[in-house]
Design a protein that fits this description.
By secondary structure, the chain is of the alpha/beta class. The chain contains 14 helices and 15 strands. Helix 4 packs parallel to helix 5.
Length: about 400
Amino acid sequence: MQKRTLPAEVTDNIVDELCATGDKKSLSSIALASSTFLARAQSSLFRVIDLNKTPCLSLNSKRYTTFKELLVESPRARWHVRTLLIGDFPLIYTGEGMTCLRSSHPGDESSSQHFLDREAIQNCSLEKAEALASILGMLPRVEHFAINDPSSYLLEWHALPSATQTAIAAFCQQISITSLYLNKIRDPPPSLIANIAQLSQLTSLHLEDISVDLENIHSLNELTNLKSSLTKLRKFWLIPPGLYAARLQHYNINIVGEVILQAARESLEYFTWHSLAGRHDPINVGILRNLKFICLRIDSFVVYSVAIRPLIVQLTQAERATVEVIELRAIQSISGSELKRNMADWTEFDELLQHSAFSRLVEIRVIEYYPHLFLFLENPPKAAVFPTLFSKSRERGVKVNVRALADCGEIL
């Protein structure tokens, strides 16, 4: 009896429809039911691998080891992974312990709370790290790689097993990677940044709360003398360390940022930068030849004076009209009365934007963000002040858009 098979277009459409609906259970079923669906279904099932989808650290460590075993047993699956999300390695945990849910869906009847003590937490983290070293060596086509997106725990680089350190450093050299997100990593070696700066195909780079130890002069020279090839980088986020930065004065993410900016000076179009709280660490954006969008954090007028104003002046001195959009964030930290008291600074800001270097400017975005709606209600919008800001820019047709955002969505 002749074996009948569906046309490839039909089987592909079936798989694509299931993929569009997010029905991974059905995708898994048809992949097992017939070899006709296997390749297409695997491509959808393994395209995005998020190893952090569980609120339980012990289950999360098992997720890593299970995925490692799957890659060993099913080599074909390795070639389908395009996005890899990893994180939460509390290898150095100083608390007494934590209570977590066993289920990844807290509403399930199968959910149950349990307690992990300090030793259990560190053992789970070590198990994850050791599995990760093997996982990274088996994924040749990852395009987007993220560490700690999002994350609750700081990753102490020196606490990682040496095999995991080596695996991450090697993985960040992989030529398939076009997008990289690194967050909450303390003390990675400058050589890791050097590897990243050689990714000629990289188009998007997010560095947040990264503290590279540059106290050693040899390490500093390793970065500043770097010959980079970031000729395709279009988007770059540079956000400095947070709470622990004040205790680690020799950590300076802006030196790393300068290396990246220098490497991507011809290609970079989108740049987000937050000044390090309490410190004047200039960043040289004047070298960027094609900058179109710049996002800045302005949560106080001290930040404006020591960080934002020098940056804007750099752009005027560059005599290069490329910027089309300026976005100002964290403005919710400034009260309405403080805005009024410092109108001279806003007026000066507006004056600087009349320079020919900003002749292509079409929009200024002012963003207030409130994690909780009640914070917005306690701090009513600065409606009486905002319409008076950037009056000269408005007169020449620049749009000034003010938005208030909260976790529940847009509220203004």
